[in-house]
Amino acid sequence: MSLLRINKLFSTAPHVKNSFQHLKERALIKVEGPDASEFLQGLITNDIRHISNSVGSMFTMFLNIKGRILFDTLIYKTNVPDSFWLECDSQVSNSLQKHLKMYKVRRRVDISPLTEYNVHVLFNTECIKLKPRSANALDGDSDKEILPANSNEIKNHRGMLIFKDPRALHLGYRLISPNSMDSAEIIKDLFICETSISYKKLRYTLGIGEGVGDLSVGSSFPLECNCDYLHGVSFHKGCYIGQELTARTYHTGVIRKRLMPLLFTKPPKTLPENDVIVHSGVNVGKLKGVFENVGLALLRVEKALKFGNITVGDGEASVIKPNWWPIELPKEKQDSGQTSL
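== CAF17 C-terminal domain-containing protein ==
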């Protein structure tokens, strides 16, 4: 198969480029042993059984007893039985290991850092746009010999493990490779790539938080951070730490604040005091971060969408509802007749 053919397979249009980046801010932890699956099941928001007897990737969160986020993670399952790889923010890698070991007790589980591997991301830069040409910009005609079709598959290309990001379609693929491997050169042989478009800009454009910079440790709630929309929480599994508040919030059907993207028509030079966004005398929410002409904020959804355009510090931004959000929110529709937040 020619290089041009492979490039066309990955992109929905020949001229669309892709971005491949080394995520130096991400770290890996291995949890393995006969009790690994049961052990993780009692600590995470998602249901580990979705991947425990197969392969693939899963998004989940670790909460404290008050139901607030401690760690957001991607969990990878390879062909190795009873072994899981946890990807987290490198700043809290040691804290996550300590958290895991605190609940290990007498379970047959080993917990160790995977410092010999790097984490990379591969995504289609078309997804930076508000209205991509296709909602399946990264699936489309992708080469089935190289890329996994969904999050229940894994591909191995010359020792590089390739997983589909389980959170949202436009986030693309996670690639895990040994430190000794020149991953960028291998990818260049397969796809047309560039590095000018940042993965952080992609996330902020989509309104997706990741790591301690966006999801404040011990103060953020999983549903406000769209854990439900990102397929990161199960409401049918058994108990786990922090479940009570999460389940109660979900079943009330009202989540007034959520992480949302900001598109700056005038990027702020001065950020709002204490990151609190006030527009026309109304507290709209809290700013989480700014990158170039986009931002991420925890907003009061109804108020923010009603305003449409808001002031952020000395800047101005448009508030948009992410196109990957559900078209309808069934619980709220049932309770109040509303079709959207």
